[in-house]
Amino acid sequence: MDWLGDHAWAAWLGVAAFLGIAELLSLDLVLVMLAVGALGGAVTAAAGGAIVLQLVVAAVVAIGMLAVVRPSLVARLHQGPDLVLGTGKLVGQRATVTERITGLSVGRISLAGETWSAAPYDEHVTIEPGTTVEVFEIRGATAYVHPIPELDS
């Protein structure tokens, strides 16, 4: 028992290592927070703190990590780009008119390497071939588009 009293920091490091390795199996970010608490206990033991102080420091650090650090890490890991599937990914894309589009007749556009039927989003607009348009909506197999104003250089 004298060795453990003299080398409590090593026991805390062993606990921290065990928890760190166990975290690799669970991947839920709880055990690694407890491992950081054990590291706090190891630092306290190395500084010569009593066993009660070591336990208190380890518990406070672990609870603090679980309450403060873990939620932000979990949120960061779960965030990512929204997955847009199907025709929804074409909304907002730019296309080139290949066949005249009017409010009375459906024309054609070249969109994402494919030819689509297209109608004007505003039925009072006529869009000539060669015009760059933006896709506002897709209903069925028809893209509803609006011309993009060209900037004068």
Report Rg: 31 Å
What is the mean pLDDT?
91
> Biggest β-sheet, characterized?
5 strands, mixed, barrel
Q: How many structural domains can be distinguished in the coordinates? A: 2
One letter per element, helices H and strands E, the order comes to HHHHEEEEE
For the biggest β-sheet, the strand order reads 1-2-3-5-4
| Unreliable stretches | none
Briefly say what this structure is.
By secondary structure, this protein is α+β, with helices and mostly antiparallel strands. The protein has helices at residues 2-6, 8-26, 31-46, 51-78, and strands at 94-99, 107-111, 114-120, 132-139, 142-147. It has a 5-stranded mixed β-barrel with strand order 1-2-3-5-4.
Q: What features would you highlight for this structure?
A:
4 helices, alpha+beta, OB fold (Dihydrolipoamide Acetyltransferase, E2P), 153 residues, 2 domains, five-stranded mixed beta barrel
Describe this structure in words.
The relative contact order is 0.10. The longest helix is centred in the middle third of the chain and has 28 residues, at 51-78. Strands 1-2-3-5-4 form a five-stranded mixed beta barrel. With 153 residues, it is α+β, with helices and mostly antiparallel strands. It has four helices and five strands; from the N terminus they run ααααβββββ. The mean pLDDT is 91. The protein has two domains: 2-78, no CATH class; 86-147, Beta Barrel (OB fold (Dihydrolipoamide Acetyltransferase, E2P)), CATH 2.40.50.140. It has helices spanning 2-6, 8-26, 31-46, 51-78, and strands at 94-99, 107-111, 114-120, 132-139, 142-147.
